[in-house]
Specification:
The chain is mainly alpha-helical. It is built from twelve helices and four strands; from the N terminus they run ββαααββααααααααα. A two-stranded antiparallel sheet has the order 1-2. It has a two-stranded antiparallel ribbon with strand order 3-4. A hairpin with a 5-residue loop joins strand 3 and strand 4. Helix 1 runs parallel beside helix 9.
Length: 330
């Protein structure tokens, strides 16, 4: 576990603490399942457990905000599809143009919304678990130039925004204290002038920083010899168990999908063997796969609570047995 200011972080013990290659295998399987299926039950399971996994990783409040935006996106997606897709036998109503509003088109729009929501939700989990170091570890040896460019971009964006806010505060303080009351009346023009100066200073800072970084890379011999890679990630037994469970369940699921266990048709009417034995077996495999983030989170929370009780008992015992100097003097 990682210690932060005044509290202990469980990130190293949860899903984010797994090896990058293990995480890559897990999220690749989940995203492939979401992309290459049209079965509403499969998509429902992936979406629900995606939100639960995101809540375990980021917290309930952030997941609730994410869910609000996804709900709006689902409504919009489900409403747009019937406007241009009029196939299906079950006619619910007629548009003024005479085109039919069919139940199959509405259901297909709802399924398309589930695909989009599940993908975005699991990508949010991936974004939380995969930081810059893990991305460099995975792609650095395959394509060093691309990984270096990507890491520099990921580092430059927050640094650029932070520097822009800093320069904006400095500029606002200078103009507030140095300008006369007559110039302050020209609000929009003065604001535009100040922003232009901030952008000019920010652009100059970015160019100077890029030149210094390029000179530093040249002085350190970048590109002259073969690059070596240093990694702080170690493969553990937990990573082995996590990867084996992921690959076994995903392989069994894809085998059932290859055999046609999850086929579902929308047109001309809804049809699919959703409760067939093969389909039920696939649902169980998918539930096992998508529950892995919550299982690892539950284990980490249990260890955290146990270690907290042990630490509290240790400090209480230490306080009872060790007397302070003033007590000894008295």
């Amino acid at each position: 576990m990682q210690k932060t200011k005044g509290k202990i972080s469980l990130k190293s013990d949860r899903l984010a603490g797994r090896h990058p290659l293990s995480l890559l295998a897990f999220f690749a399987c989940i995203l492939c399942i979401c992309m290459f299926t049209r079965n509403p039950v499969i998509l429902g399971i992936a979406t629900v457990f995606g939100f639960l996994s995101l809540a375990c990783l980021t917290g309930f409040r952030k997941t609730l905000q994410h869910f609000k935006w996804m709900l709006i996106l689902a409504v919009v997606t489900a409403a747009i599809n019937p406007l241009y897709n009029h196939r299906g036998r079950t006619v619910l109503a007629r548009f003024p143009s005479g085109n039919a509003l069919t139940f199959e088109a509405v259901f297909y729009g709802f399924t398309a919304a589930l695909i989009l929501i599940s993908m975005i939700t699991w990508f949010a989990c991936l974004n939380y678990c995969f930081d810059e170091d893990k991305m460099l570890y995975v792609f650095g040896r395959l394509s060093p130039a691309v990984s270096l460019t990507l890491s520099m971009t990921l580092r430059f964006v927050p640094e650029f925004l932070s520097k822009a806010r800093e320069l904006d505060r400095i500029s606002a303080g200078i103009y507030k204290n140095g300008e006369s009351s007559a110039k302050k009346k020209r609000g929009p023009l003065l604001y535009l002038k100040r922003k232009i100066k901030v952008f000019s200073a920010l652009l100059t800072w970015a160019l100077e920083g890029s030149v210094k970084r390029a000179e530093g890379m040249r002085d350190r011999g970048y590109g002259r010899t073969k690059r070596t890679a240093y990694s702080v990630f170690k493969w553990t037994m937990k990573d082995t168990v996590f990867t084996v469970v992921t690959l076994v369940t995903a392989s069994a699921y894809f085998f059932l999908q290859y055999k046609g266990a999850f086929r579902f048709w929308f047109y001309p009417e809804l049809y699919g063997e959703l409760l067939a034995p093969k389909a039920l077996a696939g649902y169980v495999l998918l539930v096992i796969l998508v529950m892995l983030p919550m299982v690892f989170n539950y284990q980490a929370v249990g260890r955290h609570r146990t270690s907290g009780r042990n630490l509290s008992r240790f400090y209480m015992a230490d306080a009872d047995t060790v007397a302070c100097p003033t007590d000894r003097a008295s």
